[in-house]
Amino acid sequence: MAQLDGDCKGYFLMGENPAVGSANTRLQRLGMANLDWLVVRDFSLIESATWWKDGPEIETGELRTEDIGTEVFFFPAAAHTEKSGSFTNTNRWVQWHHQAVEPEGDARSDLWFMYHLGRRIKEELAGSTDPMDRPVLDLVWDYPVDGELDEPAADAVLAEISGHGPGGDPLSAYTELKDDGSTRCGCWIYCGVYADGVNQAARKKPEWEQDWVAAEWAWAWPANRRILYNRASAAPDGTPWSERKKYVWWDPGQGRWTGRDVPDFVPDRAPDFEPDEDATGPDALRGDDPFIMQADGKGWLYTPAGLEDGPLPTHYEPQDSPFPNALHPSTPRNPVRHLMPREGNRYHPSGDEKGAEVFPYVVTTHRLTEHFTAGGMSRWSEYLSELQPEFFCEVSPALARERGLENGGWATIVTARNAVEARVLVTDRIRPLRVEGRAVHQIGLPFHWGPNGVARGDAANELMAIALDPNAHIQEDKALTADIRAGRRPRGPDLPKLVAEYRSRAGITPDTGTEVRK
Amino acid sequence: MSEERVGFFTDTSVCIGCKACEVACKEWNAIPEDGLSLTAMSYDNTQALGASTWRHVAFIEQPRPEGRTELPLAQGESTAQETPVGGDGELRWLMSSDVCKHCTHAACLDVCPTGSLFRTEFGTVVVQEDICNGCGYCVPACPYGVIEQRPHDGRAFKCTMCYDRLGAGREPACAKACPTESIQFGPLDELRERAALRVDQLHEAGVTDARLYGHDPDDGVGGDGAFFLLLDRPEVYGLPPDPVVTTRDLPAMWQHAGTAALSLLGGLAACFALTGRGRR
Ligand code: SF4
To answer: Which residues of A touch B27 (CB under 8 A)?
Structure first.
């Protein structure tokens, strides 16, 4: 949005393909067309790198290459097998991988790109007396490089993130960090990943040589702790809730917490500890307050601060929904959702609102095993592409009958944002839902395709509105409404015309779908 | 056979349809891509085994209005139960990774005039691309429709059970890649024992449709080197229910042909003898 408003001037895309993978791909491209510069680093010429010459808006005539001011740079990127580095999974494990082969041709790692870019900028600014350049000039940027390609040592970056003490010794835990400038650390949660000068993330001890917690497989942030708030695995008195599942418990003999994992608690705080009246911070936590990151040590259902909403969920309908909210009739959608109403990002009438019947079906997007997200790593691979070669929509036999769709034929799916065409897969797996007494049909859309690559097709995200959840700002692209009709979509200027027709038929205005309460 | 006979046991009851086997096979054997169009047949865009497809994962969508069987996924914990459902589109999705059967009596090998197809020291059937002359006799000979000539090339190709990997003491690429051990590789005798146990286990858990296919050394092809555990009749998976080696009657046919040829020769000789005598 800041790109469309002209506030954001430059964009680095590293392994990301918003022209396919982000909600409302048309607006994503129009945003990129409004930049001064765009840098794309990827394995192949993904849609986000070529929209300016052969993107959908060039076809519809909405953009003309010669009018686009964005300077686009494309750099071939090295794959994970061609560089060393780490993967961090949703379990918080930092797992190291080692380079297997040198990258081919001009391909370089992201680390190489960032390091040498920084180095060149510093060289460029050397000798400048402009105070604005001071921070860049004073930045320590001295990573060791090796090999013919001058690849910076990823290991050295990890060691820096992990942190060093006054004498330059590696830190082993964030508890060693001082606020007097004597220690340094890239990010406290990773402090200790390079404890003892050893890359802890590179540990690969097999499961049969350690217990089931596998604490010596890679490293988990923070403090190699595998389960957060694990004090809660013991009863308030410090004994395990379950003998069979015991995990962390109080050892009265030693006067310490112990167990299978690194205890997530003040190590020597006894279960019956009661803080002084005037104690503050962590000192104010009782011995049976396991949620140590919360000020009161308790688990919270709703937060007064920090989060916009929750965390205890309630039921809201999606932004575009064929139904009113049965649970909160006056508040169909999350009142604190993040909307961006603007030209090109119009929302649908929902529930019993007038015009909702123009988009009578529910669309859900999903993935396929054969492709990876926006396709940059899979749609250029022949072996994966032949397994799922074309964009398709999955519909039930009943919907196919209702709309005259043929298995293997074409269908056009339309929302207020855009229209896409897809091959039709009629299957009993997709069943109509029975909600509030009526049946509603579903359309399943795998979202991996775009116009480039070996396996090509329209991108499902053309259909999405940008509507974000209030806490993490995740795009809502798993549930929306749409219409479906037999046949291929119109080409050229007829495509935006069709979409505009739908908007006017549904009576969509800038305010549609933007209310907080009914 | 200088080595123990090895084979595949493909247990389709644990196949998740990831197609890792198809990709691993193509990667290892450098097989060309063969088709980029949607078939609209469930998630199966491969369709069949062929010259450039040596593993094929079939996706079969089956309506099960009479109630469906749930597989016990955790070993030893029987959770199978009949869940009554109406005929409202409830279905099960059968996935099965098909491959060359490496028959005990292999017709492709019998008819090959060049010796390109041969039986290896591991008991598998392999076609050698540098010897094949593209005559195509093997294609109709296969009772499973496995081997095929590659268009624009003419030579016949099929699964080699990764002959090169076996020689290096490694398992075939598909078995290596399979994340669920649906594809198991090993000495055939061991696999047969393991498969029998697995069927018993499934039967006990209430999956009464579980059955083996191609495991029996007394069947029409003398048993397959690559056999399967199926959850329905073989026809459902596109497999012939009673495969017979197409060259079964060949020896008898040769005998007949031989007798015929002999009597023909005898007749000719007699003719010559008679005419000769007449001229003299
Ligand atoms: S790799 Fe295994 S699980 Fe995946 S499709 Fe093949 S046989 Fe099935």
So the answer is: 383
- Amino acid in position B227: F
Which residue from B18, B35, B93 is facing A386, i.e. has the nearest CB? B35
| Exposed e or buried b per residue across B81-95, where buried means at least 16 C-beta atoms within 10 angstroms of its C-beta | eeeeeeeebbbeebb
Burial class (CB in 10 A: 0-12, 13-18, 19+), A77: buried
Buried b (16+ CB within 10 A) or exposed e, B128-137: eeeebeebbe
Flag the least confident range among A34-38, B60-64, B122-126. B60-64
The torsion of the CA quartet A306, A309, A310, A314, rounded to 10 degrees, works out to 180
Q: Is B271 annotated as belonging to a binding site?
A: no
**What is the rounded average pLDDT of the residues B90-111?**
94
* Structure tokens given for A348: 């649908």
Domain parsing of chain A, residue ranges? 92-202, 338-505
**Per-residue pLDDT, A88:** 96
Q: Name residue, tokens 């089956």.
A: B62
Alpha helices in A12-109 (DSSP H): 18-21, 25-32, 47-54, 56-60
CATH code that applies to domain B6-237: 3.30.70.20
Look at residue B277 in the predicted model and tell me its pLDDT: 47
How far CA A252 is from CA of A239, A241, A247, A271, in Å, comes to 10, 16, 16, 10
How much is the ipTM here? 0.86
Q: Cα separations (Å) of B159 from B16, B134, B163, B243?
A: 22, 17, 9, 19
Average pLDDT over residues A54-70: 97
Residue A191 has pLDDT above 80, yes or no: yes
Omega cis (within 30) before B179: no
- Which residues in chain A (428-487) have CB-CB distances under 8 A to chain B? 428-429, 431, 454-455
A338-505: which CATH topology? Barwin-like endoglucanases (2.40.40)
Instruction: Give CA–CA dist B243/A195, Å, rounded.
Output: 64
Name residue A424's beta-bridge partners. Answer: A393
| B24 Cα–ligand 1 center, Å | 10
As a whole number of angstroms, the distance between CA A294 and CA A273 comes to 17
**Terminal alpha carbon distance of chain B:** 60
Q: What are B164-211's pLDDT values in tens digits?
A: 999 999 999 999 999 999 999 999 999 999 999 999 999 999 999 999
On average, the pLDDT of chain A sits at 96
**Mean pLDDT value of segment A375-389:** 96
Give the global pTM: 0.88
Backbone φ/ψ region at A487: left (φ over 0), alpha (ψ -120 to 50), beta: left
**SS3 (DSSP) at A393:** strand
CA distance B18 to chain A (A): 6
What residues of chain A lie within 8 A of the CB of B89, using their CB? Answer: 396, 428-429, 431
Pocket of ligand 1 (CB under 6 A): B 15-21, 57, 95, 97, 177-178, 180, 182-183
Cα–Cα nearest to B8, from B223, B157, B197, B237: B223
Query: What confidence tier does A295 reach under pLDDT thresholds 50, 70, 90?
Result: confident
In a 13 Å sphere around the CA of A391, the CA atoms on its Cβ side amount to: 28
